[in-house]
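One-letter codes give the sequence; backbone shape is given numerically. An example follows:

. . .
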Amino acid sequence: MEQLLSLIPVFPLVGFLINGLGFRKIPKGIAGLIGVAASGFSFLAAIWLFIQYLQGGQQLISVSLWEWITGPSWKIDFSFAADQLTFCMLMVVTGVGFLIHIFSFGYMHKDEGFGKFFAFLNLFLFSMLVLVLGANLLMTFIGWEGVGLCSFLLIGFWNKNEAYNEAAKKAFVMNRIGDLGFLLGIFLILFRFSTVQYTEIVAALSSVQALNDPYLVWAGICFFIGAMGKSAQLPLFTWLPDAMAGPTPVSALIHAATMVTSGIYLVIRMNALYSSIPMVQEFILWIGLATAIIGALVGTSQNDIKKVLAYSTVSQLGFMFVALGVGAYTAALFHVITHAFFKALLFLGAGSVIHGLHEEQDIRKMGGLKKLLPLTYGVFLVANLAIAGVPPFSGFFSKDEILAHTFAGNKIAWVLLTITAGITAFYMFRLFFLVFFNEYKGHLAKEKIHDAPFSMAMPLVVLAILSIAGGFIGLPEVFHMPHMLHEFLKPVLLPTEQLATVHPELHHAISHSDEWLVMGVSVVVSLVGIGVAYSMYLSKKMVPDFEPATNPLIKLTNGKFFFDEIYNAIIVKPLTLIASLFSVLVDLLMINLFVEGLGIFTRFAGSSLKSTQAGRVSGYAFLMVCSILLFALVFIFKIV
């Protein structure tokens, strides 16, 4: 099993190397098959290893490839490990990643950079697998940096468009801020426990009796800063909507299966740490809640189909962090899994719409596509019902579990999060009604509009099935049926449960009657959101105005709460001004003046002294006599 574990990330790495080195010469069809096969073999290897893991009694699988870094009292191996949490992430990353690769085969077939695209896509998958499989924090950090690099390469894939290049650079820079936090967290843990190995960290944390140890508090804050960057939380979330500049399959991969789930995974992996620092958990709760609300509000006024989905991702990630903030780690991972299904379906469905309309993305220029794109309409409806939290679709179960834990932990947060769930249902069905109902408002002839071909349709159907049935792995306790995901994750969450036994104030229980109440309220609120969207955009047939908004609230949401403008005013412009001053004071007046001044002096001295080298013996003799007389005066009369 150990050999198979280390082989899982090798397949996409080999795919990257083959297509990356030969993309100019390898035919498109072969390049696509290599990319798809690489992700498919990785998925099959993960399934086979998972089966062996279950049959072997669910014992931790680990493999150390070599000793990497050593210190006075510690060492770090280049090693992989797999436990219950790892396998949950492996199934999502390789499974959804494989479907996105298949979809990309049809979606990108006309692109001139087809082979290069699949090389980058395989590298993205490889980096995420290293992140998930890493047995220690430093291995996770390697994958962490890898997905950051791949996001830069894929967001700016169409690099002839300068706006796309700016979006790629923005994602790269914003994530570097978070990455610095992650790196500082690694140093703090290494200093505190003399190890970065996950199993050893958990063992060391079990001996820490006091809550909110200062070193652990700062380590937890630093790790969360890293998570804020990768998982797009306030204030580091503005890169994610701009990441829509990349091809649509990239958006699906970033939002559903790879990059944005990294921060959630890190906090769950370090659950023993965060449960021992409840003050940081409280901070995570409110940051997640603010992100969920702002993402949902901005989503209500976006008119680019991919931007609506991008802000919905920001909001849904906020839901997951709220769950982490109240210690509901299983609920957070549950929503990661269901979100991967329906968000991948939404993005690939949006890709099908864009592909069928020949790259049109403005929902105000769509409408009436229900009959023109029947398959895409059907799967999009499934995904919308899932993200809106309508039973029995997958999003209902995971969202309800988050709301139930939030109700038990913080009533104010529960009220705000429930309202946010209603807003989610509203803006997602606003999108749905504007795209698929009423009259077609585009300029493309209807006979030119086409539905997804087989290579794109197959992943859509599979994801639709998962979006319907995926929630049944975590049925609510009130149904008196086993919560399969929680039972499976128990060994990973055992240290947290033990800590809650010592400190019962960390455990938030909810009665069955309260859970029925939470469930009923969430369903009613979601249906109200859908009803409002139905009334506005289907019954009244409203269409968002192309003119700039005059309503202050709409201007605020259209302007995305002006975060970019604020950052530009308080960070970018001052730094640009400082850079300009330094370019004058340091670069021109100090560095250039010194270097150029030295050159000018040397040229002047050379031109002045060159007359002494005329090649005349009499002149040299005269200078020699003068020099001897000068030395004589100095030594005889002690002039100096």
